[in-house]
Design a protein that fits this description.
- It contains 1 helix and 8 strands.
- It is mostly beta strands.
- Strand 6 and strand 7 form a beta hairpin.
- The radius of gyration is 22 Å and the shape is globular.
Length: about 130
């Protein structure tokens, strides 16, 4: 009769994780809650942050100040505040002078152009119907 071999700690942890994971393929793929995208322009120090479920978008920039450097995010106003529950995603154009991005509601197909206005607010223009 063979004596059972001791299981090492790494193998034991792997077995425990597999037991809690459930059957293969049972785990749901979840999109990240946020998407970050820079516009194509290399002249501007800005990125856009999108809440993928609500569609709210804010523009953020790195600001150098005498008192210390900070990241400043400009609040979403009007159409940039989001809308119908999505999934939403961001896309940039191929125009290297553009400082805006496109926001797309993947469920409805609605698209908006979004930008930072006057270094104060983030705005989006709704799709013309």
């Amino acid at each position: 009769m063979k004596t059972p071999r001791a299981i090492g700690r790494p193998a034991l942890i792997a077995l425990a994780l597999a037991a809690f994971a459930g059957p293969a393929g049972a785990q749901e793929t979840v999109s990240p809650a946020w998407q970050i995208l820079a516009p194509p322009s290399a002249e501007w120090n800005i990125v856009y942050r999108l809440n993928r479920s609500s569609g709210e978008i804010t523009g953020c920039a790195y600001i150098e100040r005498a008192a210390g450097n900070v990241t400043t995010c400009y609040p979403a106003m009007d159409h940039a505040r989001g809308g119908d529950p999505g999934p939403y995603t961001l896309a940039a154009s191929n125009n290297s002078t553009v400082i805006s991005v496109y926001r797309l509601n993947e469920r409805t197909g609605e698209i908006s152009l979004c930008w930072v206005a006057g270094w104060k607010n983030t705005l989006c223009a709704p799709e013309d119907e």
